[in-house]
Amino acid sequence: MTKLKVGIALLGMEKLFDGSIRKWIESLRAADAAGIDQLGITDHVVMGENIQRYPYGKFPLPLDYPWYEPIAMLSAIAMRTERIRLSTGVLISPLRPAILLAKQLATLDVICEGRLDVGIGTGWQEEEYIASGIPFEGRYTRMMEQIRVCRKLWSEAPASVNETTVKFEKIYAYPRPTQGIDLPVWFGVAATPRNCERIAELGHGWVPIAANTGEIARGVLAIKDAFVKAGRDPAGLAVRAHFKPQFDANGAPDFEATIRQRDELAAAGVTLIEVPVMLFCSRADQLPAFYEKLAKLKEP
């Protein structure tokens, strides 16, 4: 069996601590100690009412769910952990100005001493863009230009940029990321031909939305082909995916049945499996033992 990395999805975990963010963050030291490789936090700046437009089925959360801002949350988590990598999964990056994004990511990477993985995407909700004063149309162009701008600011001083959505001359931006210009960027987008080209141009990894291994395998092959065409080593592609949850006869989440998909996902090209903690834990005191179980998934 292929050795995998394993991550945890933080979505909803505050419920285990009666909404206490400080206790929740403190609890993540156990994940760090157990050898979990990565943790991920999702993003919505605001939420509109038209959740029926969610393109991946029924939207799983209520309108009043507290979407904590990922950069701020990860900065706090960085101070209570030492080795686990910190990930946005994914950040709706076009909602942030490019130069502010560059500053936020660089600062966070310095705080966590080079443990940051940046998952980015364009989101699906037009109302979120309207409320932010940013055009929904052209969001992919904006996202790609953001990464180019970030890398420019992380490597040149003074830096000048003349992109469609960002223009400036002789700008200085410090600090720079501990990981430098190669701070890993993961794209949470569908593996369309154009998106495969985007990932091959600027990405280190892919975050597929689907849990279908066939779709993931086809996407991995397409992205690796794009890597080859771009003159990059396809072996360097990282892929973070999640299990398709399995349930027992009573409708309860079945952990053992769920993790049987491990080898199938590995064969599809997945390098890191992300597990939603809230699916399998209902109490905070279950977390340390659960993290130990997850860490065993890494072994070949």
What do you see in this structure?
- The chain has 300 residues and is α/β, with parallel strands linked by helices.
- The protein has a single domain, classed as Luciferase-like domain (TIM Barrel, Alpha-Beta Barrel).
- It has eleven helices and ten strands.
- It has an eight-stranded parallel beta barrel. The chain has a two-stranded antiparallel sheet with strand order 5-6.
- Helix 7 links the parallel strand 8 and strand 9.
- Helix 2 runs parallel beside helix 3.
- It is globular, with a radius of gyration of 19 Å.
- The model has no long low-confidence stretch (mean pLDDT 96).
Mean pLDDT across the residues is 96
Q: In what range is the share of β-strand residues?
A: 15-25%
What is the helix tally?
Answer: 11
Instruction: Identify low-pLDDT runs.
Output: none
For the record, what CATH class applies? Answer: Alpha Beta
CATH superfamily: Luciferase-like domain
As laid out across the biggest beta sheet, the strand order is 1-2-3-4-7-8-9-10
Number of E strands: 10
Backbone CA Rg: 19 Å
CATH architecture: Alpha-Beta Barrel
- CATH topology grouping: TIM Barrel
What string gives the helices and strands in order? EHEHEHEHHEEEHEHEHHEHH
What does the largest sheet look like?
8 strands, parallel, barrel
Q: What number of structural domains do the residues give?
A: 1
Shape: globular
